[in-house]
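#lab-general

N.A. 3:47 PM
ok so I finally got the sequence cleaned up, no stray characters, all 237 residues accounted for. can someone with queue access submit it? mine expired

B.Y. 3:52 PM
send it over

N.A. 3:53 PM
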Amino acid sequence: MTLSRLSVVIPCYNEEKTLEEIVARVRGADRCGLDLEIVIVDDGSRDGSVAVMKALAQRHPEIVVVEHGVNRGKGAALRSGFERASGDIVLVQDADLEYSPTDYPRLLGPFLDGRADVVFGSRFKGGEETRVLYFWHSIGNQVLTLASNMFTDLNLTDMETCYKAFRREILSQITLVEDRFGFEPEITAKVAHLAPRPRIYEVGISYSGRTYEDGKKIGWRDGVRALYCILRYNLWR
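B.Y. 4:20 PM
back already:
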């Protein structure tokens, strides 16, 4: 199947300060010749994110906007974005600046070579650079990835990564239900248990993580929920 279009889905919650810049980076990224669609889903922001999003859509016809009237969580925003996405490949991009669209060629390469159905971008496989931040966050990520791998029989190094990309026909086989950060272990489990199992690749990416002062939102409760989701979506399918 010829791949011609990339849909980048951006969930947004109170990202007024970074939204315009991340859209500019996505629009300027090397997409390996693919046409671009950007689906921005505002998840009930209380700052000026909606105004920024609408202004961007007026200037750039490739931008599709979706609004949630109330905050429902990242997973809910991604579900709405996936429903609107029309590309052959669908890629998740956070609205902050932690993940760089300069890594798109790495993420898209296995698709364009005809080798992959799903690609994960790993912060632990040696991207060009990684900001040094929280030790216990990295340990938590490794523990969650290990637990996920034990039940999915995958050998991922970074299950919790934002950068996940899918052939659209893979997403069409999956029904997602998690509203918050449980999306990550849920979709990993549901991809792993598809029959036949999709061809999954992992590539190294750079990472410029945020501090809580910068606006980082994930916390320890999300880690507990992730463990629950690993069990739920692997054992009680």
